[in-house]
Amino acid sequence: MDLRFVTLNEIDLDDSAFEIRKFAEPVRLRESLGRLGILDPPWLRKKVRRLIVVDGFQRLRWAKENGAQGALCRIFPEDCGALELWTRRIEKKIFEREINLAEKAQIISILLGLFQPEEVPRFFLSDLNVANRPEVLRQWALLSARGPETLELLGSGAIAERAALEVAGWDKRSRAAVLPVLQALRCSASIQVEMVEYINEIAIRDEKVAADIIETPHARGIVVSKELNHRQKTQALREFLAELRHPRFSSRQKRFQREIDSLGLPPSMRIIPPPAFEGNNWRMELSFTGPEELRRIIDSAGSLVESDRLDAIFRPRLRQDPDERS
Amino acid sequence: MRIRAPKRVIVESAVAEGALVATLRKNLPNASFEIVDKISDMNCHDPEILEVAGFRGKFLKSCPGTRHYHCCGYRILHFGAQCSLDCSYCILQAYLNQPNLRVFGNLDEMFRELSEVLAQNQRSMHRIGTGEFTDSLLLDPFTGLSRLLVPYFAETPNAVLELKTKTNFIENLRGLNHRGHTIIAWSLNSGEVRKREEPFAATIAERIEAARSCSGEGYFLAFHFDPIIDYPGWKSGYARTLDRLFARVDPARIVWISLGAFRFMPELKGIIRRRHPSSRIAYGEFIRGLDGKMRYFRDIRAEFYSFMVDRIRQADPDLRTYLCMEDDDIWKESFGFSPKERGGLSQMLDCAVEKRMNIGPLSLKTGKLIRSS
User: Fold this and answer.
1) Fewer beta carbons under 10 A from the terminal one: N or C of chain B?
2) Is some CB atom of chain A closer than 8 A to the CB atom of B327?
3) Domains detected in chain A
4) Residue pLDDT, tens place only, B228-255
């Protein structure tokens, strides 16, 4: 491998066979190049009479834009195979400070082109923090194949990794409908995953595609609302999706709330049902400042505890034992 | 229905000379038999393989109930594992290290343990079944195990055997001297669920015809609507199955019917998604139950059960119907009482055995049946 000064005329900058695009503006890199120039020599490989770029696309483009004659480069011989070059290129890439999801998807796709899914070197996957399972690798490759619009969204850093993988298998319309919403809401990774999973499961259950769910008038109304900020939109959309996903549970929650409201409990007293109304571990929460307030709350709640309305909350529908009917 | 005969039988040397392997050699003339010291765990399923291993644990196990929900108190006779029916909801898919069909060849030890347990607890009623880790009759055409189990239980005064299946493989049961100690049970579902989620099992009509045939042989019957699945039109689907059942089978021959809404370990969701991508059963309205399993939201379960209980009571108000792994609230909502008020679910099922089958624990003094109150 030679290390020598190469003029830009010797390099075919249009050959992007080895490019892993960032799908995001390399602002930090350009700022560094502006101050200090090229510190790390780009990698080139001989191809017939010219040289093609293996690593350093952004640096060399910057050099050309800024009228540089050339740069100090490492040059691989023409007989250096694609497997060896890609292996070195990926090894170097994954040591970069931050690889975005678009790059990660491309790297895994390249690895799957070089190796069988079961034979991808483990150190690559562990450095990339990717599970060593063929189906996961295929999902990443699918993501990489989803075209520049999807990759730009991934490159922007606005889409969480698990949410991105979840949408990898979706149809084009659904990806185009959901990913910009996630980007606009700027919500956490866990909320993105929750929303994407809800959308997916509702769509499968109702035999629709994900776009049908997020494009319902109610969901659209939330997303384009001018009154709500992004946090309020996120919350409203989560509630809407949760209700669609769990209609019976949501309706029971609403009914419970109505019944509790009709009881007229003091504001410092709460009745808390078991999680998902499963089992009979109900709780009551009291908040008070001292013994006098506690006595006052308990006195005022006494008549409520005797009320039939309280029973209704606990026993929604009792059936008659047939043995007692006779 | 038909089952593909195993082409390769892998046998552990310790059980190679046993009766089970001899029967398999006779019933599987085209299969190759391979003797190994120990069958190692495998990570990929081969439907053509049948493994015959020596089982080193306890053959009799308690039904894996939890303290949060009422359990039937049934005991499992563990004679084999895995199933090739490949139902989308089956938990056996999660047993990844032993994916192949397996039966245990040390039958002498199994019967010895069974005899010891039954002799030690003569004042108890024993309800014993084999359909927890495999289908009770799936491999019966090859193993002929029912021809050993049924006559054995015929001689046990305080025990009944329940063979639970989704097949119609009942040929071996014909002509056996069961003395009314064996219940042949079918897992039933709506026709739509059968078609989508258990396509390799016998059709509902085939199962009901098999039940009718067994009833003609004097066997008592049981049915398990488990898992009940929520889908649009579930009421008419399940009503149709119940109507078909009661049109062909005399309810007086049915010892019990159990009802269980679909529930699953959370890990199963990913497996269903991967192995049965067209199935929608994992996308119902599930919540995490007190035992950690995913269950339909309680109001949905209560609606299932109330509907089913009403329909069953119309056919036979005295037919013992019970819920598998449900709590007091759901019982009360579905039946109007909880098992505790009737001495517990186990006691209720023992009573059903006594009333319908006239079998119960014996008095040590008189040697006669101890009648439940």
Assistant:
1) C
2) yes
3) 1-80 (3.90.1530.10), 82-157 (no CATH), 170-245 (no CATH), 262-324 (no CATH)
4) 999 999 999 999 999 999 999 999 999 9
Would you call B299 and A320 a contact, using CB atoms and an 8 Å cutoff? no
Q: Do B274 and A275 touch (CB under 8 A)?
A: no
Report whether B300 contacts B289 (CB < 8 A). no
Helices (H), chain A: 27-36, 57-65, 82-93, 101-114, 122-128, 134-144, 147-155, 161-167, 172-185, 189-205, 210-214, 217-224, 230-245, 247-263, 291-306, 308-314, 322-325
Strand (E) or helix (H) holding B306: helix B298-315
User: Can you tell me the mean pLDDT for B97-116?
Assistant: 93
Nearest-Cα distance to chain A for B42, in Å, is: 17
Q: Which pair of tokens denotes residue A172?
A: 């084009």
Element (H, E) at B288: strand B286-288
Q: Letter for the amino acid at B56?
A: R
Which member of B280, B327, B332 has the closest CB to residue A205?
A: B280
Per-residue model confidence (pLDDT) at position B371: 54
Burial B137-162 (b: 16+ CB within 10 A, else e): bbbbbbbbbbebbbebbbebebbbbb
Cβ–Cβ under 8 Å, residues B51 and B100: yes
Rounded Cα distance, A145 and A147, in Å = 6
pLDDT (tens digit per residue) in B322-364 = 999 899 889 999 999 999 999 999 999 999 999 999 887 655 4
Distance CA A16, CA A4 (A): 22
Query: Is the bond preceding B227 in cis, omega lying within 30 degrees of 0?
Result: yes
Do residues B11 and B21 touch, judged by C-beta distance below 8 A? yes
Tokens of A253: 């929650």
Bridge partner residues of A270 (DSSP): A285
Note the maximum CA span of chain A: 103
Q: Using an 8 Å Cβ cutoff, are A6 and A71 in contact?
A: yes
HSE-CB at B64 with a 13 A cutoff on CA atoms is 6
- The b/e string for B44-55 (b: 16+ C-beta within 10 A; e otherwise) is eeeeebbbbbbb
